[in-house]
Design goal:
Two copies of one chain form a homodimer. By secondary structure, chain A is an alpha+beta fold. Chain A folds into two domains: 334 residues, Bira Bifunctional Protein, Domain 2 (BirA Bifunctional Protein, domain 2); 78 residues, Rossmann fold (3-Layer(aba) Sandwich). Helix content of chain A is 38%, strand content 19%. In chain A, the strands form three sheets. Chain A has a nine-stranded mixed sheet. The first copy, chain A, is elongated, with a radius of gyration of 28 Å. The two termini of chain A are 55 Å apart. The interface between A and B is large, with 76 and 76 residues. Chains A, B: InterPro entries: aa-tRNA-synth_II, aa-tRNA-synth_II/BPL/LPL, Anticodon-bd, Anticodon-bd_dom_sf, His-tRNA-ligase, HisRS-like_core, HisRS/HisZ, HisRS_anticodon. Chains A, B: Keywords: Aminoacyl-tRNA synthetase, ATP-binding, Ligase, Nucleotide-binding, Protein biosynthesis. Chains A, B: GO terms for molecular function: ATP binding; histidine-tRNA ligase activity; identical protein binding; RNA binding.
Amino acid sequence: QGTRDHPPAQAALRERLLSAVVSCFKRHGAAAIDTPVLELRETLMGKYGEDTKLIYELQDQGGELLALRYDLTVPFARYLAMNKVTNMKRYHVAKVYRRDNPATTRGRYREFYQCDFDIAGQFDPMIPDAECLKIVHEILSDLQLGDFVIKVNDRRILNGVFAVCGVPESKFVPACSTVDKLDKMPWEEVRSEMVGEKGLSPEAADRIGDYVQLHGGLDLIERLLQDPKLSQNKLAKEGLGDMKLLFEYLTLFGITGKISFDLSLARGLDYYTGVIFEAVLLQQEKEHVEEPVSVGSVAGGGRYDGLVGMFDPKGRKVPCVGVSIGIERIFSILEQRLEASGEKLRTTETQVLVATPQKHLLAARLKLISELWDAGIKAEMLYKKDPKLLKQLRYCEDTGIPLAAIVGEQELADGVVKLRDVATREEVRM
Amino acid sequence: QGTRDHPPAQAALRERLLSAVVSCFKRHGAAAIDTPVLELRETLMGKYGEDTKLIYELQDQGGELLALRYDLTVPFARYLAMNKVTNMKRYHVAKVYRRDNPATTRGRYREFYQCDFDIAGQFDPMIPDAECLKIVHEILSDLQLGDFVIKVNDRRILNGVFAVCGVPESKFVPACSTVDKLDKMPWEEVRSEMVGEKGLSPEAADRIGDYVQLHGGLDLIERLLQDPKLSQNKLAKEGLGDMKLLFEYLTLFGITGKISFDLSLARGLDYYTGVIFEAVLLQQEKEHVEEPVSVGSVAGGGRYDGLVGMFDPKGRKVPCVGVSIGIERIFSILEQRLEASGEKLRTTETQVLVATPQKHLLAARLKLISELWDAGIKAEMLYKKDPKLLKQLRYCEDTGIPLAAIVGEQELADGVVKLRDVATREEVRM
């Protein structure tokens, strides 16, 4: 349940999609690493907030207690700490596992690919953070998925907001995970969850509401930097200052048109400590567009400066920022689009079919195809002793093989091969 | 335990190795599929003989009872049956899981990659089987791993041998798994296991010994076809006839020099029904070579005509033959060789580092690198506001970046970039 086989047509589309993402990561100088699908259970505990219950555990069959990885970020942090790496730019494309309620039509599965790019190391503020946003922008533009917006916020700003609204520090995390639901439910419901389930005072909730419904650009950052309450809060001031710097760099990258500083963005995971972001596709209405509707997140990430330290015996921190591309949702979109277009994706790369027009020529086919393979040419033949020529040519048409190399009795006698262009039916002897 | 992280240098070597294997599979017209790492437990049970105990099971957290896949063959057969596919040539490169005693120095892990190529469908005898052997030959030659031999046998011949030696049919499977140990222990030990643990009569064991110590080529096949006892056994006769045909095709492929018909080859898995094979590397002794010593199996496979039927509600069979490349052992060899050579593999593909020679030029770097990325050029910069030029050039040397694009105050004023060849120190303004 919640997993799927990929038949050849899907596997080919996925390969195309993954290779577009990976070439962007390589364009930005990232190296690949690989980590096991299995992690020690204790490595994964206490990293995913309310979602820890979604971790798949392995049966205790003796030996270590294991679980399947939930994402690629925690294994990356564990890798850095274990190997005492303090400086690295890596990508990782691999499957992760969540015992979630699958919603397969929207591309939500229990086993799915993640494509992660992360920068670890002590650097000047916001330079790697800006590059992560540039990467999201490049990938979503390359894939031509339609209009999108990248929402940006900062955990320090959110925590500052909670502080100046009178939320006690012990309730920052629950308040944050409630704010996170603003993209799925209206403010009124979020407010009642804050007051009801999370035990915030109605006044605090109302004050939070005034802030988290704001979104904008550099102007909003400037306004909040002047905000009499927020500007007095150390965390918020730091966050807003960095946000301003980030926008400066994004302006140099020429991508601020797709960036929205959005105070409702919270992100569910515990480990974020600074900038957070999430890219959503905007639905293109065929009629008059009132307000573009979000069709869901296709990329997300942020800064997590404390995670590596949790795996180091001496607690040594390695600041990190990274992005994860939501490849499954993108895959669903591309798949639907391909289906609608009626285009048929080739699932093999075969260049030539070796064929014979008469019986008793299997040996000639085997000799020729062996020569072609040894010369690095992608070649197939039918696995029948005496297939009909028509059947062999139809196989080319069905699978998109452009050429047929035909050896008949005459060709054998003359020491030639007849090369046929399957589409045009042109033939040359060579 | 028994798993490992792959740091960038290993990941790069692995990518190179996998891409050599995959291009061979594509050269033979195979399409990719992907299946989940998780399978239902019941799917995996009863397929792996004594090794069933090595399957990793997931904890029962409600819902289906799951396990991690043990190989890629059983999931492929399950895929064919579930989707009613009766004809397919596919490859699959993915990780599999075995709770084995790891021997990591010899490339044996609990999580490891398999690279499988299989041909499913009802075809004329031995044509797809011969192609599988051709593939092993191509890959091992391409990778230049040194001398190798591909041992070939047939389960029908083995079962015929057991029958004519007086082994009751109920003991074919245990007898077979004991013969399989002949590559690791001498005949005397195998014989005593047959008689002691498996309960064969000493006479039967001795008769088996006379057969399973034979190996050769077409001459041996001909001799056994004349063998007064074996030639009376239907199974053995079928197997030997097909083996003769196989050698005919392999002669046309020009690869019989590396093929040995070896009656001691048994292969551990339950599901094989016909041809079986295994490739081993031969150790190159520096001194006078008495007899080349095997350093272990690097590829194996065979025909399994009954497996798909086990997953079909009506038991409909789909004949299959396939090969699995033992990528981990090959990886260990290549890794040791790379280490010995002192060659350093680049872990990134960055073409140019964007650098500045003076302070306060971060904006110029960000603008230029953004242009390069947008033009599809692989570019990096240091994440410091004001890095020293020497440090930037050293980064190029350390990571193998061939070019530096330098923008200083003069270049900015002139509207040019200074492109420097890191190795030769030549510079051009452009």
